[in-house]
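Lab notebook: predicted structure, single chain.

Context: the supervisor wants predicted structures on file for every construct in the current expression panel, including those that have not yet been purified. This is the next one on the list. No modifications to the sequence; it matches the entry in the shared construct table.
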Amino acid sequence: MTREEYGHAYERGFEQTTRLLCSKGVPFDSAHDAAQAAWAKGWEFIEQLRDPGLVTTWVNSIALNVYRSSLRRKTQFLTIWDIPVTPQVNLAAIDLARMIEISRPKDRGLLTQYFVYGLDSTEIAQRIGCTATAVRLRLMRARRAVLDRMSKRRPLPAVTDICKGKRFAFPACP
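Prediction complete. Output recorded below exactly as produced.
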């Protein structure tokens, strides 16, 4: 293929190459740049063209490859916006020791075994000698009592006298 023939093919096929890339979803500016690079690369490797009648098809495939390569090379940046957020109460971060301190003395061991040591109701039932259903019922009542005391903010008087501001130390698991 001569220089003039390639020039005529460029004039006829450049817009086709750009439209092909745009039809594949490539933005117009990127499609225009990729088409320009493909036609330049086609001229550099013109000796590899087997059929001069298929020059536009050949350059279109080069253009697709040029665009794909540019996507692989392009570093993708994720913008992290600094959005001020007001702090919110995290209910999961409520101090467990305080919850156990304000619970009734007979519920402390049960709550400690369940929440601190992670035993399930059947394991606790085997340890204290009752049914798993009874343990689940006692746990439900103990949790409700603790939530009630925390919402009303009135701890048991005996606990206030015993603790005097000290942290409750968890007993060893029996």
